## 1
Amino acid sequence: MGLLSNAAALLGKEVRTEFRSRELLSTTIVFVLIVVVLFSFTFDPTTNESHRFGPGLLWLAFLFAASLMLQTCFLREQVNDTLSALRLAVSDPFAIFLAKIGANTLFLLLTELLMLPVFAALFNVSFRGQLPGILLTFFLGSLGISVAGTALAAISAQARMRELLLPLLLLPLLAPILVASTEVTISLMAPEPFMQWKGIGFLVVFDVVFLTALWLFGEYLLEE
Amino acid sequence: MSAAAEPSIGLRFEKVDKRYGAVYALRNLTLAIAPGECVALAGRNGSGKTTLLRIASCLTRPTRGTLSYSGVTENQNSKTGFVAHATMVYDELTAEENLLFFAKLLGVANRRQRVEQLLSEVGLGERKDSLVRTFSRGMRQRVAIARALLANPSLLLFDEPATGLDPEATAWLTGYLRKLRDSGCTILMSLHGESEVARLATRAVRLDAGSVVADTRSGATFQSIFSFVGG
Amino acid sequence: MAKRVLLGAAAVLLVIAAAYASFFVAPEERTMGVLQRIFYFHVSCAWAGLTAFSIGFLANLLYVWKRKEKYDWLGVSCAEVGVAFTTVVLISGPIWAKPAWGIYWTWDARLTSTFILWLLYISYLLLRTLIEEPDRRALLSALFGIFAFIDVPIVFGAIRWWRTQHPAPVIMGGPNSGLAPGMRGTFFFAVFAMHILMWFLIAERYSLERMRSDVELLRREAEAT
């Protein structure tokens, strides 16, 4: 079975498993909600301030949520050593990463899209007409978070203190994602919205660089 | 149950070392296994049995030395079935879903049919829609074996397969292993002590501190290989 | 042994010489006066830190490829020395900024990126303490080191772009503040001195790591028998 069909089969299983229990999605969504509410206490949520601080806080909430959610993707393969079964069954170990990145991006994106109208309502921010731009930003940002996060989750799953370790490793690495996504989102939610293509550019560069690095080094991350 | 259609696989470990930091799990291990042999691996805990099996399955690579196969043409992975300590199946899926999933990854032809056949062979036909989480140890073992057999492998590796099984499950296992042995598969199984499962073997090898110390092929007796203190 | 003492002595002498040059040889800067002299120290440490991390990156790649433990020793030595130099940069910045600008810190492009760089390599060092088995530790930290290093240019680029959106006071002068000819000599001498110091520190840390590894090996072999 080729790389892509293996990845697709694995992705299908990950998605089906998650939608059966929905435990990962529900806990992640609630976590983002909690963080957003708490953030609202830290500044005066007038419309002006919301425009300036809102998107950044939203992305920060996504980043925190992701760094907790991504833990599970390799921990659940350790329970019955299903990781070994996967390694034995697939022709290219990169398929395992592709599938997990796809699943994580999907879950993050779902969380973000669910949070978007909630956020807009809570902070009186409008994104009307900018949906394509916002979707693109959310997608590229989530992809970057997933690529780096999945790679680092493979590392932290083999170390002690893994619950704290993954956020520790991941959050500084994701600085460019936070910066670029926030900037683009701010401009898209501004009173006169516009698209910052340079920011999108940084997101694309990050995604491509890390996906390539994972393709080159992924099998070593899974080595025994 | 179909006989192994392809020629059986032989293995050759040549001066294999496996080192974890300063600890040698395997030290200068040389062992040749002929196609179709059913080999019992004996040894205390920590003698290197599990490591040897994991290298044979290609999950781990030797630090030094080589492992070569004979009788293999293309993708090695699908020709090897590995049943380890852990079940290597997902608790949150049903038996059937697990097998269908792995069959898909392995590219098994007519997978629905194959899965159904295997499930009835291992006696799980009635529980196929139950989550593996609800299975007893013996039943999990059967799912694990079914998973290992999906692609009709000609090399089978078992890591202490009888551990934790009650007498009834052990009897089933012995019968099933006998069938596999008689169909011409090459089997390598690590065992704790002499038992009905051990007596299926056509050859026994004892490991100690990561090397082969006794082999029925070189004249040792089955009894001597299995009689050691502790486990 | 003699070589190491010589290297150490050279490093110390060069740094002292560079300090002397910074204070007495280089001309006084027009606007900031004496305060500006910390610049030679601050920037040369920054360059030495980046060089250390770059060598560390190569060591990480070599380890993943060749799996020889000496590359692991080199990797961790470079990371620690790099962190040390970067810490100096992060401390000397505010020391300079407070009297010059009245603020200890500003989130300008260079300082912010340097802070992230520092955090990434602190994480690298923390990761190493959380993996016990030496071969796993070497491989996984090498892989993280590679990911961290390739992130660095993206971090610098993104933060610099961000700063063009939201301009803020820039420490050490903007990109247009060139070096007067009289200053250039002192500056490059300071850079050279810091790099010799860096080389000495990495070499010392490397032999310490090699000794540590030998002791570990002996201890485990003693435990096994």
## 2
Amino acid sequence: MKRSLSIILGLAFALLASDMLRAQTQLNGAGATFPYPIYSKWFDAYSKEHGINFNYQAIGSGGGIKQVTEGTVDFGASDAFLTEDQMKEIKEKQGSDILHFPTVMGAVVLTYNLPAVGADLKITPEILADIYLGKITKWNDEKIASINPDKTLPDQAILVAHRSDGSGTTNIFSNYLSKVSPEWKEKVGQGTSVNWPVGLGGKGNDGVTGVVKQSEGGFGYVEIAYAIQNHMPYCLLKNEAGKFVGPDLDAVSAAAAGAASNMPKDMRVMITNSPGEKAYPICGFTWLLIYQNPKDKVKGKEIAAFLHWALTKGQEYCKDLYYAPLPSSVQKMDLKQISEIKLK
Amino acid sequence: MQTNIPQTTAEGRQQQTGGRDQKSEPPVVVSTQNGTARSTNVGDVVFKNLTLLFAAGVFSLVFVMAYFMYKGSSLSIAKFGWSFLWTSVWDPVKGDFGALPYIFGTIVSSIVALAIALPLSVGVAMFLSELSPRWLETPVSFMVELLAAIPSIVYGLWGMFVLVPFVRTYVGPFLSKHAGFIPLFTGAPYGFGMLTAGIILAIMILPIITSISRDVMIAIPNSQREGALALGATKWETTKIVLSNAKSGIAGATMLGLGRALGETMAVTLVIGNSSKISFHLLDPGYSMASVIANEFSEATTDLYLSALIEIGLLLFAVTIILNAVARLIVWSVTKRFSQ
Amino acid sequence: MTSESNAGVDRWRKFKNAFMISLSLFSAVLVIAPLFIIFGYTLSRGIGSVNVDFFIHMPKPVGESGGGMANAIVGSLIMIGVGSLIGLPIGIIAGIYLAEFGKNPFGAAVRFMSDVLSGIPSIVVGVVAYVIVVLPMKHFSGFAGSVALAILMIPTVTRTTEEMILLVPHSLREASLALGVPSWKTTIRVILPVATKGITTGILLGIARAAGETAPLLFTALGNRFWSTSLNQPMASLTVFIYDYAKAPFDDWNRQAWAAAFVLICIVFLVNILFRLVTRSRYGIGNT
């Protein structure tokens, strides 16, 4: 017994020791679930190419912001850009400003679970707001039926789903609703975490997708990759120009067209409810939150190298995962911003 | 008065062969003034104090934990005071926090759990202590123990994939149709909700209530049973007497079960629906204290937010400690009373 | 009272008796049923996916099927191991105190506190570990997870150690003392070896409890998609993996979650069965 014990202990020590001796080749990040499908692909591919591991935990934009503020991660990710107060707090606690690097653009789609109805259900902003305010509760409500004459809607309750965690996706969605519904703006407002009038909470984009997928009659807002990967239908939404648009890549890119030319220097901008005939109304950039003055310069260099890769080669992975690559003007600004990271 | 323990043959033999495997002196037993014997052997003193140190460590662990939790929630306590307990706003954006929806959800799901588990547990305890043949008692007890050993995440997994659809498809509509006049039994048709959480909690607390109730009932002396039977009582009437003797012990067991239900996290988080609205419909989604900590802890963006969550943890800590302490005292006193 | 009304009352009493007995039987069945239902369902969903891949491979990116949980399994093993290194000595030595010197009010207080400690929700233990370890260290770590698991193990180990030592027949102790062996040596060299088998299974029980915990690891060890054996980094664990994969809408992930759940439940059951078998020979000393 004693011998086997000492063998085990010896092995354990060797394992731990070898680990400490090995150079630090892992960086930790946390944040949004919105870009998680493409980030997990990026980090996997980058790890294979360059041997550096980026460990990303998709805990929601709120979580990403928090961890960046506390300095418990090397980088964060969020689809809600930081507010002035949040940036001030990070400056105080970590002694560094935060640089926002938009990485991709994604669409927030309304997915539903109505097997008999099929794909491409049409809805308007007013109906959407009413559903989330709890005013429309049944699928065969007149308002929905009247714009979908080709579909038979069941006499079933709409099982509304929303995020239970602090979410950039919620931020994009509630920002849109605030723009199209004065009642929503007044009663609920915009934010990463809002006081939902109705509905079931799911954690992360995956949680909401799971809730809708499991409940017949379910209805929720998720990033498009989650809906497609789970073979779930999503709605055609009426945009500012009056057209019913689906969230395909051209529609998302069209949404960013206006913003691209007027991109502010700090790259913090919302692109919901864009004008433009082809634009899909609920789109957003998602950002990597990077310390301008990283404490660990070695890690800072690795992050800068990864950013360069992500903003050039990484963009090629976007289409397959239903994210829109950055418009070229944004991409140029982004690449230039990398040089602002203080690596000395 | 000093007494020397005489050198025994083992020691003597060792002396003869020239080697002693112990460097310490033979124990000298000293009889002190009040008659207790105390060893002055150095090894004994060291040993006793070393073990005492560790035992003291275990003892103080609870206080250490309480201290750190209190420190962590100081921001939130300072800002909200007692109103934290009855405010239902939970607004991370504005920095306004009140724990009422979570306290409510925790209490409701726990009460549902107790309502389901208590009769069943007492029934099984009754079966195990009074009715079952000897050969059946061990396997059944063992199976109840195994039920307690199932990790809570597995309960959660099963709850989410099996129980939720079951409640959504059968239990919910059944209750709404036949008991729908009582608003308590109506609610949203999600399947996720406080009723489902209560059901899964009930399964999880069954073992602890059962095993302690059974122990208490077994501890009731046979003289009680014999007396009743001698007077012509049926098995059930005899059992009724045993039950009434074991009443406080069963109450203690129930409190321990309640304590477990209040703090259960993973199983509840996956089935309760995570909705911060206070609702008096059992089928509606809710939120429990443990669930909100699990969901929001890693993303509390401000110090106040984190402090509010730690304060909820402190509440849970305090309540479960009090429940456990009182329950253990009750159970201990009942079994002591009957073992004499 | 006529004999007829007596007979009526008797019949009613007999009926009540039969009714309550059958109710009791029924509740026994109802209570045991979930055990088989849950285990059976986990078995059916999980067993198909428990293959070599599961144990050897790393997780794949979102949306791609296949892959395994190698890093989670190793992570769990490491955290349980380190947690045991911290928690077991504390529990065992405290248990020795309770058995040897614990028949006084302080011993009763320690026993009481240990029981109270075992009733603290594991999520609260996780919060404590966060405050004590993660905040000062300024990052998540496998070490923080280990600390949380250690705290969870201590009550079970303490109590079982005490019970197992007390089970050793007094005659052994008396014989040793009569031979002039000092009390402390008696405990260590004579009593403990005899109680070892029971203490070991008590330890296994404590470890099994810690192994099944998810909540305290959520914000201490956090999680890790990559292979990491460093205690200074976030660490993957089997239980948190089950949680993440279960909530996800990806069918492939759900499948893996069930496989992991099945592995977990088997391990825990095996330990419990072992414990029961060992302590069944309670009234004998067993083999040393």
